[in-house]
Design goal:
This protein has about 350 residues and is an alpha+beta fold. The chain has one domain (about 5-265, about 300-344): Double-stranded beta-helix. It is about 20% helix and about 25% strand. It has 9 helices and 19 strands. The strands form 5 sheets. Strands 1, 2, 3, 4, 5, 13, 18 and 19 form an 8-stranded mixed beta sheet that branches. It has a 3-stranded antiparallel beta sheet with strand order 12-6-14. A 3-stranded antiparallel beta sheet has the order 8-7-11. Helix 1 (about 25-40) links the parallel strand 2 and strand 3. The radius of gyration is 20 Å and the shape is globular. Bound molecules: 2-oxoglutaric acid and fe (ii) ion. 2-oxoglutaric acid binds near residues 340 and 342. 2-oxoglutaric acid binds next to strand 5, strand 14 and strand 19.
Length: about 350
């Protein structure tokens, strides 16, 4: 038996059929999936109505799971190795728009790669669509290998030795969010990441950037920021981007080492011609006639983020960078990971 792998974009992404992720994936099929993953960077598995447990089991085949910090400090809806990409509170009620968990999650709408603000960032992420909004909520992916390939040779040489400081506080400050508890400040100090990475399996080179990227170490902050902005804009030009329109039951996984992604806004008020009006006493919907009804939980996506099981940051070509700057970016990586469960 072999899985069927069909490219969905000229540069990145393939659809995978012929495997049932609700069951144990046999080693020979997993080997084929891994080859496709390393080649295409994004895999879309349609019609996989996985439970959390099944998603966890499939995810663990790629490496140990990352554990998520409790960023907003509120009671979490899901276990800490499942990241909650959702607009629900621990009781399954839709969060108020100004709830700090919602505001924090808005940062996912900026181009990023998962956990680059951690010394050991996520290798890959798995996101499954459990509930969907009636419109919007797409996820876009940018191919950072194709972007690298398209750069002029002189610029490639200029970038190869650069090291970038990444921080969760940088990405969230861009959307005006700063409501972190003290523990998060202690747990997540800024980290250095090589600007250019070499993929251990595909041997392709890519830019490694994210909204978490703050500045270039050793450069004036302003100059580094200008370069980071220029490169993110370059790498996210339409020809490098695949937009995924979610269908219920899709499971999508992506390689954080060579892609960036962002969630797109969704209209949570469009369902059944009703407007969603979360209130202090609990969420309600107002119909067009103005009568109020209890709100149903809606729009959930769940994803799983994996930590690197290989050398991750600062690979071969960036060894020079680490010694130039005296940074230990080539240290062997611990094998920890995290899961994202997201609800919209
Ligand atoms: O909301 C989205 O589509 C993206 C979520 C995200 O950034 C993630 O799951 O890592
Ligand atoms: Fe993400």
């Amino acid at each position: 038996m072999a899985v069927e792998v069909t490219p969905i974009h000229p540069m990145l992404g393939a659809e995978v059929r012929g495997v049932d992720l609700t069951c144990t994936v046999p080693p020979e099929l997993f080997a084929e999936i891994e080859v496709a993953f390393n080649r295409h960077g994004i895999l879309v598995f349609p019609e996989q109505p996985v439970t959390d447990k099944q998603q966890l089991a499939f995810s663990r085949l790629f490496g140990p799971l990352e554990v998520n910090p409790n960023y907003a400090g509120a009671k979490m809806r899901l276990r800490p190795d499942i990241a909650d990409i959702s607009n629900l509170d621990a009781e399954g009620r839709v969060l108020a728009r100004d709830d700090s968990r919602n505001l924090f999650n808005l940062g996912n709408q900026l181009w990023h790669t998962d956990s680059s603000f951690k010394r050991i960032p996520a290798k890959c992420s798995l996101l499954s669509a459990r509930e969907l909004p009636s419109s919007g909520g797409e996820t876009e992916f940018a191919d950072m290998r194709a972007a690298w390939d398209a750069l002029p040779a002189a610029r490639k040489r200029e970038f190869e030795c650069l090291v970038v400081e990444h921080s969760i506080f940088r990405s969230r400050s861009q959307i005006g969010f700063g409501d972190f508890n003290d523990e998060i400040h202690r747990e997540l100090p800024p980290v250095p990441q090589a600007l250019v990475r070499h993929h251990p399996a595909s041997c392709r080179t890519s830019l490694y950037l994210a909204s978490h990227a703050s500045h270039i170490i050793g450069w004036p902050v302003e100059k580094g920021r200008a370069l980071i902005e220029e490169l993110i804009a370059f790498a996210t030009q339409p020809q490098f981007v695949y937009q995924h329109r979610w269908r219920l039951g899709d499971l999508v996984m992506w390689d954080n080492r060579c892609t960036m992604h962002r969630g797109r806004p969704y209209d949570e008020r469009s369902a059944a011609c009703c407007t969603v009006r979360p209130s202090r006493t609990g969420p309600t919907r107002s119909s067009r006639k103005g009568c109020r009804q209890a709100l149903r939980p809606e729009d959930t996506l769940s994803s799983i983020v994996y930590q690197p099981s290989d050398r991750g940051i600062g690979l071969s070509g960036n060894l020079a960078a680490s010694s130039v700057h005296g940074l230990n970016i080539c240290a062997p990586l611990a094998r920890t990971s995290a899961i994202f469960l997201v609800t919209r």
